[in-house]
Amino acid sequence: MSNLIKVGIVGYGNLGRGTIEAIKQCPDMELVAIFTRRAPENLSINEPNVEVLHISSAEEYKDKIDVMILCGGSATDLPDQGPYFARLFNTIDSYDTHAKIPEYFSVVNQAAKESGKTSIISVGWDPGLFSLNRLMAESILPTGETYTFWGKGLSQGHSDAIRRVEGVVGGVQYTVPIDEAIEKVKSGVNPELSTGEKHRRVCYVVAEEGYDQAKIEQDIKTMPNYFADYDTEVNFITAEELKENHSKLPHGGFVIRSGKTGEDNNQIIEFSLNLDSNPEFTASVLVAYARAAYRLNKEGQAGAKTVFDVAPGYLSPKSAEDLRRDLL
Amino acid sequence: MSNLIKVGIVGYGNLGRGTIEAIKQCPDMELVAIFTRRAPENLSINEPNVEVLHISSAEEYKDKIDVMILCGGSATDLPDQGPYFARLFNTIDSYDTHAKIPEYFSVVNQAAKESGKTSIISVGWDPGLFSLNRLMAESILPTGETYTFWGKGLSQGHSDAIRRVEGVVGGVQYTVPIDEAIEKVKSGVNPELSTGEKHRRVCYVVAEEGYDQAKIEQDIKTMPNYFADYDTEVNFITAEELKENHSKLPHGGFVIRSGKTGEDNNQIIEFSLNLDSNPEFTASVLVAYARAAYRLNKEGQAGAKTVFDVAPGYLSPKSAEDLRRDLL
């Protein structure tokens, strides 16, 4: 019997693949199985020691897996999978439908309390590390303002919106924080800024041959919610250029707290991410919190948790003594 | 009986004064008393509802104070005050002698376990928030390097060293991170950098009238440990300029983790501080952790803790429900 933390993955998309890679960097963990809704034999997963199984057989692995990492989407998968798996396993997920987090927390909490398991929900970078930094910065500097900027990064939702425009064959959209807004925030003047005053939108679009590009540009720039309120730039490129230069999934952003203490001293706390691969980074956060869920459960702390409830020491494979000596 | 958390302060230096200001920003806290080793009647503290008392009377306040914030120094005060006050109160301190943290933790832990109190040690920004970010970033990106840069900021130790040089009447030293080193780190190449390759030292010195400035400059630049291994700049100024332009205590710095995931994707996590007032900011961190110590103790979690052991939610006066709804 190994002492490794035995991990399972539900879902084999970008996030699931990133999770496989992240587990390989953790000497205290072992990936046991990947569960999919597709026919397992049709997945080409080149991991000799990992089983690939249909999601319906997960229950049989109740005693063989310590933590299940749920890599499905918030809209379609997690509302069902979250509470279902919390009845069987300690779980981690990246539920990110902000408005529905209280409701999701409640159903997962009930399931996990009943099973005696520990489920950490809404893990990743936003929600996740950004949330943590918003909370800590506001607690330390109660008088002040918090600003979240996203990007430069590829937005999946906005890219999908572009691809639905008539005459568009393919395209991507990058959310780009506006430098002047960041500088203003860092100067300590605490400006009021709308999302559109903090970000611009840069699109790379492949048009149908012969289609009126001016019309496409107009249709994108005036699209309500997605683009109308933003400084939007539309660039037309070839299908080859799209594939060559825009198939990575970079992202990142900033959380900046600008506060005042004493008479009139400006204090700036900033947390930022600059990520070549958004799904691989999110997966790395999930895996660190999987370690925490396993440990919290060993201590009998059952129920749903968020990043706010997890002491940072639980994320590290090192002992508390080593952490105090080496990292404090 | 108010429901406010009743706080005491030990020590009335820069940190103690910053703590008074920080408590004023917390609607859930009340400053009860300041304890000093000096004659209390000689301190001019303009806080009508706060008692100013000799440190020897602290024990009488055992049932009147929920958390005691220790604002003394690591070298001279905390080795005795830490365990002494942990026997009587929940405590917070900013013990920062890195090499002796394990030993200090152990004596405070024993005292706090015996009294059933909760003591969070080594709170502030380094050790403290920087440590937390080193730990989290390394846990999330196990393959990579962590870099800590300090500054731009006034270093008390180096300023003291300058003032001990013959012919020097007054002076300050700023530690300045080297931009090229920061850029190199952020590019993801993971360079090996000594402290001297990451920082330069900029001194502003008031010389004795008629004293040989070239000799002073030479004495500073060749001083072992403090300056010899650094790119050091010495500027001579007048006593008036020193007072006018260099009597604030700014500081800050960066913790940058440069990691790799998957095939070869660079992932950068950065945490930075830009502080007009180092002691006021440190005090603000102490006060947020005082709230955490009070709550952890209410839950029966006695003994010594560090920032690694405290779930972030404990720092906020808001309820867990509100935090999930508003900040996650």
From TrEMBL, chains A, B:
It comes from the Bacteria. Keywords: Amino-acid biosynthesis, Diaminopimelate biosynthesis, Lysine biosynthesis, NADP, Nucleotide-binding, Oxidoreductase. NADP(+) binds at residues 12-15, 36-38, 71-74, 94-96, 123-127. Its EC number is 1.4.1.16. Pathway: Amino-acid biosynthesis; L-lysine biosynthesis via DAP pathway; DL-2,6-diaminopimelate from (S)-tetrahydrodipicolinate: step 1/1. Gene3D superfamilies: Dihydrodipicolinate Reductase, domain 2, NAD(P)-binding Rossmann-like Domain. Residues 124-277 form the Meso-diaminopimelate D-dehydrogenase C-terminal domain. InterPro entries: Diaminopimelate_DH_Ddh, Meso-DAP_DH_C, NAD(P)-bd_dom_sf. One of its GO terms (biological process) is lysine biosynthetic process via diaminopimelate. GO terms for molecular function: diaminopimelate dehydrogenase activity; nucleotide binding. NCBIfam families: DAP-DH. Belongs to the diaminopimelate dehydrogenase family. This is Meso-diaminopimelate D-dehydrogenase.
